[in-house]
Amino acid sequence: MESVATVERPKAVRTAHSSRGRKPIGTIQSVDKTPESELMEVDEYFEILRKRVNDYYDSLQGQD
């Protein structure tokens, strides 16, 4: 009979991800907000989106 050797695989080492890829607090810059007059209404946004989707769908229908 032949003996079978088993090989144990090392367990994955878990590291803390909290410090990876983050900027130190001192380097974060404040973001200026967009003026209220330049913001788009939700209804206006979805109307533009609906038009783009309909135009795209119509162009697909024309390709047949």
In short:
This protein has 64 residues and is mostly helical. It is built from one helix and no strands.
Descriptive notes:
About 30% of the residues lie in helices and about 0% in strands. It is built from one helix and no strands. The model has no long low-confidence stretch (mean pLDDT about 80). With about 60 residues, the chain is mainly alpha-helical.
Write the topology of this structure.
Elements (H helix, E strand, L loop, with lengths): L41 H20 L3
Structural class: mainly alpha
Helix content: 25-40%
Query: Between the first and last Cα atoms, what is the distance in angstroms?
Result: 69 Å
Give the amount of beta strand, in percent.
under 5%
> Based on CA inertia axes, which overall geometry fits?
flat
What attributes does this structure have?
64 residues, 31% helix, mainly alpha, 1 helix
